[in-house]
Amino acid sequence: MQKKTTGVxxxxxxxxxxxxxxxxxxxxxxxxxxxxxxxSGNLEVTTSDWGWQDVSPDRSGGxxxxxxxxxxxxxxxxxxxxxxxxxxxxxxxxxxxxxxTDANGDPITSxxxxxxxxxxxxxxxxxxxxxxxxxxxxxxFDGLADGIVLYSYDNTDxxxxxxxxxxxxxxxxxxxxxxxxTSDRVLTEAQTSLSGSGFTxxxxxxxxxGYNG
Length: 213
Hints:
Blueprint: H1 2-20, E1 42-47, E2 51-54, E3 64-66, E4 78-90, E5 95-102, H2 111-114, E6 115-116, E7 123-132, E8 135-139, H3 141-144, E9 148-151, E10 161-162, E11 167-178, E12 193-194, E13 197-203
Parallel strand pairs: 9-10
Antiparallel strand pairs: 1-4, 2-3, 2-4, 4-11, 5-9, 5-13, 6-12, 7-8, 7-11
């Protein structure tokens, strides 16, 4: 009798192990997901130093390089400063606002933002021009507040100005004319200085081509 009881208890214990343990195994399979690398885009701007020339149209010698620290401007003179800007934009949705800014980072919107001093009053005509991708884009000082929107070469929803490659060189030129009607020794020995300025490149989404709003 004792042997039969022991056998029954052992059988129940074995069944319990089969039902509640890990002995049962259902079919199972797996497959690896191919690895993928996600890369970010790029936004970068570099500038060179100003280079200045006397480009007065009535001079027989034509345009020539000048050093502003030595050059003495007189009524009727036209001087021109330019510098090259390297712009790098990469990203399938990349749009960037380009602005000419003062020392505080605010957009330059008037002659007064660019020059200081008594002589500034005689500089009657200061123009701003951007040469990019074989085309000239004259911009008024008022228009500088809005800037120019550039799009990366890989942006499939690009607007008007799209870079042909990841990096492009933009030439910025500022031309200043000393009023030829300045007379009676007005502004003789006067001085002016160019305020600190820079070229700012800012990523934008709102208002750019390919975006809502």
